[in-house]
Amino acid sequence: MKFSAQLLALLPPLAVASPVNLTRAGLHKLFVRQDVQTAINASLPNVTIFATGGTIASQGTSNTQTTGYSVGLGVQQLVDAVPELLNISNIAGYQISNVGSGSINETISLKLAKMINEELAKDTVSGVVVTHGTDTLEETAFFLESTVNSTKPVILVGAMRPATALSADGPLNLYQAVTLAGSPAGRDRGTMIVLNDRIGSAFYTTKNNANTLDTFFSTEAGQLGVFINQVPFFFFAPSEPVGRVVFDVTNVTDLAQVDIVYSHQDMDPALFNASYSSGAKGIVFAGVGAGGMSDKASLAAEELYNATGIPIVASHRSTDGFVPDGGDFTIASGFYNPQKARIVLQLGLTAGWGEDKIKEAFAKSYPKP
Ligand code: ASP
């Protein structure tokens, strides 16, 4: 592994890269396997990296700077910083975008889902890695969990420290992600999140701390596994999350607009109408406790539902836990947190599902009393 000082010397001047052209024709495959190795090692797995930006692709102005850095490293630079990757895999890379993950949008998510489905359909490809900012990594991971139809591993990876930092975490995280993507142990487990020596299910894992390395976990569902000396160890045999629904987005170009409304004391009931007026086809609210909100807000939501039929999903603003079916106008999110419930609702609405089918999809993921 190269040290940060060496990495620093490799880097171009600070620059915030503009997003790449996302049309299929304009998509630039940065390198092919033959370009990075004199010969493909037939005994190694072929792993494809899709780079989107984030802290893992960011640089600061000094090796002690761990906030306020800039995104801009490309997929080739990420791979060049970890030459050991070529001892464990034949790598190909695509630059999908180069942005902070707050700017990942449905165009990028759909592009990723389509390209990953195509890539994994190739017999020669063992698995894929997506490098991504950690802030919304769980959303892209869950989106891919819900749209990639393959038994091969899809691994989302990021970093909490920029590439220039002392003890940057990106290089080892990337090494572990590529290891898992190329490993038969990663099969039949859906999309996974790798950070800080841990392997989590995209279905449940969430970012819990805005700053520290040890941020990705799920309190209730736990971790799927860990890396011991860079070898993935799974605690359980392969399985898939209860209630997982996989949508076909091959021909989808836009997703239905779904907004999240945050519930709190004295919340403004007008937010439901505002969301509908701005084009939302569905609303998720991050409820207090198990999907609650004030009487005033609830009345406004019910009036909107009665007038328009817009599906309104009750989720929870607490990190973990589940929302049961309340037998009212709302659809219970079960264990899905608001950002994941939003994706289920978006995909269901985009597929043309009616309220009953959407309700059924949510209900598959939690127990009936
Ligand atoms: N700002 C970063 C992002 O793109 C944070 C990170 O990657 O850790 O999400």
TrEMBL record:
<dbReference type="InterPro" id="IPR027473">
    <property type="entry name" value="L-asparaginase_C"/>
</dbReference>
<dbReference type="InterPro" id="IPR027474">
    <property type="entry name" value="L-asparaginase_N"/>
</dbReference>
<keyword id="KW-0732">Signal</keyword>
<feature type="binding site">
    <location>
        <begin position="134"/>
        <end position="135"/>
    </location>
    <ligand>
        <name>substrate</name>
    </ligand>
</feature>
<dbReference type="Pfam" id="PF00710">
    <property type="entry name" value="Asparaginase"/>
</dbReference>
<feature type="binding site">
    <location>
        <position position="101"/>
    </location>
    <ligand>
        <name>substrate</name>
    </ligand>
</feature>
<dbReference type="InterPro" id="IPR037152">
    <property type="entry name" value="L-asparaginase_N_sf"/>
</dbReference>
<feature type="domain" description="Asparaginase/glutaminase C-terminal">
    <location>
        <begin position="257"/>
        <end position="362"/>
    </location>
</feature>
<dbReference type="Pfam" id="PF17763">
    <property type="entry name" value="Asparaginase_C"/>
</dbReference>
<keyword id="KW-0378">Hydrolase</keyword>
<protein>
    <recommendedName>
        <fullName>asparaginase</fullName>
        <ecNumber>3.5.1.1</ecNumber>
    </recommendedName>
</protein>
<dbReference type="InterPro" id="IPR020827">
    <property type="entry name" value="Asparaginase/glutaminase_AS1"/>
</dbReference>
<dbReference type="InterPro" id="IPR006034">
    <property type="entry name" value="Asparaginase/glutaminase-like"/>
</dbReference>
<dbReference type="GO" id="GO:0004067">
    <property type="term" value="F:asparaginase activity"/>
</dbReference>
<feature type="domain" description="L-asparaginase N-terminal">
    <location>
        <begin position="46"/>
        <end position="230"/>
    </location>
</feature>
<dbReference type="InterPro" id="IPR004550">
    <property type="entry name" value="AsnASE_II"/>
</dbReference>
<feature type="signal peptide">
    <location>
        <begin position="1"/>
        <end position="17"/>
    </location>
</feature>
<dbReference type="GO" id="GO:0006530">
    <property type="term" value="P:L-asparagine catabolic process"/>
</dbReference>
<feature type="active site">
    <location>
        <position position="55"/>
    </location>
</feature>
<dbReference type="InterPro" id="IPR036152">
    <property type="entry name" value="Asp/glu_Ase-like_sf"/>
</dbReference>
<feature type="active site" description="O-isoaspartyl threonine intermediate">
    <location>
        <position position="55"/>
    </location>
</feature>
<dbReference type="InterPro" id="IPR027475">
    <property type="entry name" value="Asparaginase/glutaminase_AS2"/>
</dbReference>
<feature type="active site">
    <location>
        <position position="134"/>
    </location>
</feature>
<comment type="similarity">
    <text>Belongs to the asparaginase 1 family.</text>
</comment>
<dbReference type="InterPro" id="IPR040919">
    <property type="entry name" value="Asparaginase_C"/>
</dbReference>
